[in-house]
Specification:
It is a single chain. This protein is an alpha+beta fold. It has one domain. It contains three helices and five strands, in the order H-E-H-H-E-E-E-E. The protein is globular and about 30 Å long.
Length: 80
């Protein structure tokens, strides 16, 4: 999933930047969620705008860390 598409989908779900969104809300399979978000999290220029958290029991492994939600900073627009 291209970064721009991911951010647009995040905004549709969150309504405003900085709001935590459940990863399961992105409509991807577990492997797709883990692969997409892990790959972006490995890139420093992107990951600095991503904030993962664990808020419930639908846990995904993002770079071997258990997480359930993501929030994205509005400053990500500077690299889109």
């Amino acid at each position: 999933m291209p970064l721009r598409q991911l951010v647009e989908q995040y905004l549709r779900l969150a309504k405003v930047f900085g709001t935590p969104v459940a990863l399961r809300s992105f409509g991807l399979t577990v492997p797709e969620i883990e692969n997409v978000f892990s790959s972006y999290n490995e890139d420093y220029h992107i990951s600095r705008f991503f904030h993962f958290s664990k808020q419930d029991d639908s846990v995904y492994s993002i770079d071997n860390e258990p997480v359930t939600h993501i929030s994205i900073d509005s400053e990500i627009n500077s690299i889109l």
